[in-house]
Every structure is written in C-alpha cells, then in structure tokens.
Design a protein that fits this description.
There is one protein chain. The protein is built from two helices and six strands, in the order E-E-H-H-E-E-E-E. By secondary structure, it is of the alpha+beta class. It folds into two domains: 74 residues, no CATH class; 46 residues. Strand 1 and strand 2 form a beta hairpin. The longest helix has 22 residues. The radius of gyration is 19 Å and the shape is elongated. The two termini are 23 Å apart. The chain binds zinc ion. The site of zinc ion has 8 residues, from loops.
C-alpha cells in the first residue's frame, strides 16, 4: 500500500494547559531528485511567466513578482524533505477525533485545527524517529 519511503511515526498533539494525546502520522520521505525537479520546475515556471506578465503595467513589478514567487515556491519544494500523508489523533482539549488527510508539507511545527472546539494543536514528533540525513 505504501512505498518503502513511507514511515509510520507516533507523536503527540499538544495544547498548552491540557494533557497531550498520542498521534499517529504517516509520512513520505522525499528524495533529492524529487525535490530538485520540483524546485527547478517552480523556478523555471517563474522565469517563463515573467515576460508574459511584464506586458501588464507596471511591467517590472509583475515580472519581479513572478520570478520571486517561482523562487519561493521552488525553495519550499526543495525544503520538503518529508510529506505528511495522514495524521490521526484526538484533540487534547475536547477529545474529538482529529484527522488530517494530506499530502501536505511536513513542517517543523505543524498546527492542526480541531473541528470540535476550533482550537489549534501542535504536532510533535520525536526527532529520533526520522532516518539519518532527514528532517
Ligand atoms: Zn477540540
């Protein structure tokens, strides 16, 4: 069902003032070629779009915005070492089920909103559960 690069990790959801709850996440490790191709595609996309949007006044501002947007999105893809596929847990505050269906970039500090109490929880994953060279 999952590729060999898929990892199942146990972490916790935390809300200040409430006991943390266990969380199970499934993440996908992204290879350097995968990240490089997507980062390059976004960077080149910005360069391709720049001359087209530069036809609209104020010309230089739109072209610069296209290039910067391509570089920023490319940088985010390059930084995406892990992709979050699923997260399942319970809200530390109200106990309602909390589910996240990805894929989404796994950030160092991931906030998860509870649909029951509309409060944000912070996902914490143990650093030693990631393979060497990652995260
Ligand atoms: Zn809640």
């Amino acid at each position: 069902m999952h590729s060999p690069d898929t990892l199942r990790i146990r972490g916790t959801l935390r809300v200040f003032g409430y006991p943390e709850t266990p969380a199970e996440v499934v993440i996908l490790r992204r290879s350097v070629p995968w990240r490089g191709v997507r980062a390059g595609a976004f960077g080149l996309g910005g360069l391709v779009v720049a001359p087209v949007v530069a036809l609209i006044p104020p010309h230089a501002a739109w072209a610069l915005a296209a290039v910067v947007t391509g570089l920023v999105l490319g940088g985010l893809k390059w930084a995406e070492r892990y992709t979050l596929l699923t997260l399942s847990s319970r809200c530390p505050r109200c106990g309602a089920p909390v589910e996240v269906q990805g894929p989404t970039r796994l950030k160092g500090r991931l906030m998860v909103d509870c649909e029951g109490c509309h409060h944000g929880s912070t996902l914490t994953l143990p650093a030693d559960s990631f393979p060497p060279g990652g995260a």
